[in-house]
Design brief:
The chain is of the alpha/beta class. Helix content is about 45%, strand content about 15%. About 45% of the residues are buried.
Amino acid sequence: MKLGVNLLCLAGHIDEGHLPQIERLAEIGYDHVEVPAMRGSPDHYAWLGEKIASLGLGRAQTSIVPEFSANPLSDDAEIRQRGIDHLSWIQDCAEALGSETVGGPFHAPIGQFTGIGPTEAEIARGVEAHQAMAERAARGGYRLALEHLNRFETYFLNTMEQARAYSDRVDHPAFGIMYDTFHANIEERDQLAAIQHLGDKMHVLHISENDRGIPGRGQIDFTSVIRAAKAVGFDGHVVLEAFGAGVPELAAATRVWRPLFPDFETLFTESHDFIRRTWEAA
C-alpha cells in the first residue's frame, strides 16, 4: 500500500508556495501525493514532479473535464474533439509529472446534466476515448483510475455496477476505477458488496469521510472498507481526500462552504495515523 494525499485540500493549482506543506507530508510519512492538474502547461508539471521527487515522494495525478464545450462524450464532433484534445493534455501533464496513476472524473463535465442517465451512444464514445488513453498509458508505464461521482455531480458514472460494466467495455489492463468512499457512501447500499463487485478494477482507493473532513471522525466504517479492498487483492495507491473552505475555485463543485478540519497539520497527521493503523488492523 502506498499512502498519499490529494493536494486539492491545498489548492486547485499547486505551485512553489505549496512546497513547504508537501515537504511536511514527507516528514509525516506519506508515500506520495496526488497532484491536481486542472490548468497550466506540461512544463510546470515537469518542474513540480522534480521538486516532489526530491522530497522522496511518488507522484500521482487527478484531473477532470472542466468545460461543457470540451466534452469527450458529446455528439457534436467539434465539442467532442476538444474533449479528446483535453484528455491528451491530461496525459501530457501526467507524463511530465511522472505520475504512477491518473485519476479523477475525466469522463464528463462536473455539474452537467441531461435529465436522463448516460445513453448508449455516450457510453460508446467514452469507451473509445478511454481505450485510446489506456493504450497511451500502457506505453508510458502508468495506470488510469476513472472516478465515479455521486448523482448530484454527474449523471455518467455513479455506482460500482456501472463502473465495473464500463471498465469491462474499455477492457484494457491500464484502465480501472478510482473507488471513492464519499461518493459510494451516497450511491451504494452496501460499500463492501460494491467493492467486491468492482474487484480487480480498483486502481486507486480514495479515503474520504462522509462530510469530506478528517477520516475516522464521521460515519464511514473504514475498517470494513479496507478489509473488503484487501479481500479483492488491492494493495495499491490509497489517498486521503478532504476538502476545506479555503479553496474557493472548488467550492461550487464540492459544495464545501465551511471548514471541515481545524488546520492542515491536524488533517495530515491524524489522517496518516488513522489510515495506517486501520490498514494494518483490517
